[in-house]
Amino acid sequence: SIREELVQADAMLGQAWGALLPRVSGQIMYTLNDQATVIDFGSSFADFLPPGTTLPPSEPTVLRQQHIVQGQLTIQAPLFNMPILSAIDTARLGRSMAGLAEEEVARQLLLGVATAYYGALSARELINVQADAFEKAQKRLQAAQARLDAGAGVRIDVARAELELESARMAHQAAVLGFDNVRQALAGLLVMDELPMPVEPEFDQLPPESAEALLEEAGDGRTDIELKRLQIDMAEQNLWSTWTEFFPSLGMAWSLQSELTEPSGFGGRRNAWALVFVLSIPIYDQSRYGELDQRRSEIRQAEIDLETALLGLDTEIRSAYRVLESSKTTIETAERQVVLAEEALRLAEAGFLAGAATSLDVDDAQQRVNAARINVAVQRYQSRMALLKLLFLV
User: Fold this and answer.
1) Helix count (H) and strand count (E) of the chain?
2) For residue range 72-119, what is the model confidence (pLDDT) as tens digits?
3) What's the Cα-to-Cα distance from 61 to each of 39, 103, 188, rounded to whole Å?
4) Which of 228, 246, 272, 301 is 20 to 30 A from 60 via CA?
């Protein structure tokens, strides 16, 4: 859709150029009179001649034909017209702005694809976590049932293991559904009929070294910032377009008229042409002065919008960089929590086998492992999103 706006901007530029080129038009006119107008000089002026004087014999003269067919060709061209020249410059700026708008939409689309892609990776990692928890729940149920059958266990351990297994099954199914939903969103962005299966990248993009290095790059590649700069240029161009209305304009028109039927009498010609020059001078129009004030205000507003965007860009980049740095520490902490939770689970399982711990202790330890592993997946996703947002801001 935005590409069609680019096509429309090209068409508007062509229209602006078209106003500067000559215009050629032609027409054919047919006139039907009730009768031809004919004059016979011999009989008409006989009463006014002296006695004994006669005119030589002559054919009647047709002053107006009954059927008249005329053709006309007209060429008009502006020789000097500042508003037309200004309109061409305005159309050029509009074309540039439409091109930047297309780039910005593409940037937003790519951001959406990348976000959905990383979301799908995170959802698939959650499936692996839930699948592992479901597998371990099955093994604990088997172990609890074996202990009960051997007379070394109690029925409550089996019931608790069955409850944990059902909870793990529901969590796994929910993770699968969530994964499919994210893949569906990704397929919609990619216009695919089948759900894509995201592949884990070989390596993530390296984070920037400092916020100051990013600030030096910021703004140069941002299409929305460039659009605001072009909006200033457009506002200035609109002011100049208003000024051009005070300029005089010079136009030329050449017309050729041709008699396609028999010309009338008295030396009527078949073809006749005329060349006309028109100089238009604007003298006074109060509304233009109000329009000048409006255009000046639009320039100041566009400059303020650009300044506000650049100030906000500095704040956004520094804030996003701090979020990224914080996410690195959070991931390290989450990974350590997984190691500690797995060690606690190992000790709880060993104590349960030795009779020093209950199955409830094992269940709690397993829940902490699951929560820690899920937290790692979530924190890794948030860190990728923080890096993605930071690069997008730059």
Assistant:
1) 8, 6
2) 999 999 999 999 999 999 999 999 999 999 998 998 999 999 999 999
3) 5, 75, 83
4) 272
